[in-house]
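Moderator note: this is an archived Q&A kept for reference. The question asked for a predicted structure of one protein chain; the sequence and the answer are reproduced below.
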Amino acid sequence: MATLKKYDIDGKEIGEESIDDKNLKLVKNSQLIKDYLVAIRNNARQWSANTKGRKEINRTGAKPHRQKGLGRARQGSFGAPQYKGGGIVFGPKPKFDQHVKVNKKERKAAIRSLIAERIAVGNACILKLSDDKVEKTKQVSKFLDAIKLIDKRVLVLGKSGTFNNLKRCMKNIPKKALIDVLAVNGYNLALSTNLIIIDSAFDDINSILTKSEKNQ
């Protein structure tokens, strides 16, 4: 059994929680995780960048100067790319729908793999939280300092409605994020080096890590 240290909000170790080893011995599929993260990034884009070519801009149709007799290169339009305010050559255009679909099984497998990896290497712990006792950002900073995570990229996973004060107090602490455990995605996990699991969300983490036909 793998064990996770449990802390209170003062940073004192108050116990441990166990996770079945077989839930952590997953075959890491780096390509699956990479494809999933690329899909998240692509789906966050608007794909609406647009530039106008020489035929689309609103410029006079007159020739800049006569064709012959000046010793200059012939020019046909002020809309040509070499003129200020002229059309853009090979500029971006709105593309077709670039949405990338990710299957539920692939999404869950990627999230499961990333969580299991953090736990397996010892970069996860549990916080016993009474949200009404969290009042100040300073209090949260002291907690993170006590468990030596103040300078790390930390993702805190909790159950919606149980961490409102903690979320407010964490807003001004850099490189820290707090997310509902049921809304977490692989991008949040990939950006973080450490996980803090609020005790109310521990059962949900176990459920995510449990590989079954129903929970693929």
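Archived answer notes: The longest helix spans residues 104-120.
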